[in-house]
Design goal:
181 residues; alpha/beta; 6 helices; 7 strands
Length: 181
């Protein structure tokens, strides 16, 4: 298990408030000081990317935010793996800098994973944008799920259990269905 004790640019000095099993590897990180948020985050997540790339096993990562997913994707791609993505979250995290009401960077990683918005961090990590087809977004909430006009035949809205997610998804790509059996 890899642990990245950061929430964006905030180091979680007291950890992630969980009891960790033996053998955990804590990944070092440190934000830059350019004043450009996405550029500064490269220093936080590049160590995670490198640790995922160096691991021979499937990565298990515990982190303080969803932006870490970009480093995981980049690390897998460095290993020659072409990952798909199933995104489970209370919110869709599918905002760009121009659509976010709060400006919270943790609400933008999914758009970055598929190559939308400011791509400073994905480029710095060496992430190749994922194709939209093998990605699926079953989310607990409905207010921030990807709109059907943006994601025709691929948007999902789950309300509760995984079996409920299966009933509410519209044309889930086959690469996602195997994760629900």
């Amino acid at each position: 298990m890899l642990v990245l004790p950061w929430h964006l640019t905030d180091h979680l000095a007291d950890g992630l408030n969980v009891t960790l099993p033996p053998g955990v590897v804590t990944v070092a990180g440190s934000p830059g000081a350019t004043g450009r948020p996405w550029a500064d985050l490269a220093g936080v997540y590049s160590g995670l990317r490198d640790a995922v790339a160096a691991s021979a096993a499937a990565p298990v990562v515990l982190s303080g935010d969803c932006v870490a997913s970009l480093a995981i994707i980049a690390g897998l791609q460095r290993r020659g793996i072409r990952p798909g993505l199933v995104w489970f979250d209370a919110r869709g995290d599918f905002h760009t800098e121009s659509t976010t009401a709060s400006g919270y960077l943790g609400g933008l990683p999914l758009t970055k994973a598929v190559g939308r918005g400011d791509l400073t961090l994905p480029v710095a990590l060496g992430t190749t944008p994922l194709a939209e087809a093998p990605c699926c977004w079953p989310t607990a909430g409905t207010s921030t799920r990807p709109r059907r006009r943006r994601w025709p035949a691929r948007a999902c809205s789950a309300h509760g259990s995984l079996s409920s997610a299966q009933r509410h998804c519209r044309t889930v790509p086959s690469s996602c269905t195997s994760t629900w059996t």
